[in-house]
Amino acid sequence: MIGAIVSAIVIGAIVGALARLVVPGRQNMSIGLTLIVGIVAALIGTLIAQAAGVADTRGIDWIEHILQLVLAVIGVLLVTRFGPGRTGRTRGTPT
């Protein structure tokens, strides 16, 4: 149980950090929010991979990790676009 929690945190941190590297531009997100987005993306990606039957393969589960990264990128984009303090307007547009 404890090992699964630690594993989820570590994988979530890696997936969240990679997602922030993939998304162009500067993201105004805290480390904690990055970790949460990464953990959620890792969990949902694992569930999708298990449902598709590709979560437990020999060696590295590349399809599962790619799913996790894609979901984390989507999560980072959603948080940076619609997160707290965002109005949906870009700089320089009149209010």
UniProtKB/TrEMBL annotation:
It is a multi-pass membrane protein. It is found in: Cell membrane. The lineage of its organism: Bacteria, Bacillati, Actinomycetota, Actinomycetes, Streptosporangiales. GO terms for cellular component: plasma membrane. This is Putative membrane protein YeaQ/YmgE (Transglycosylase-associated protein family). It comes from Nonomuraea jabiensis. InterPro entries: Transgly_assoc. The chain crosses the membrane at residues 6-23, 30-53, 65-83. Keywords: Cell membrane, Membrane, Transmembrane, Transmembrane helix. Belongs to the UPF0410 family. PANTHER family: UPF0410 PROTEIN YMGE (PTHR33884:SF3). Its main location: membrane.
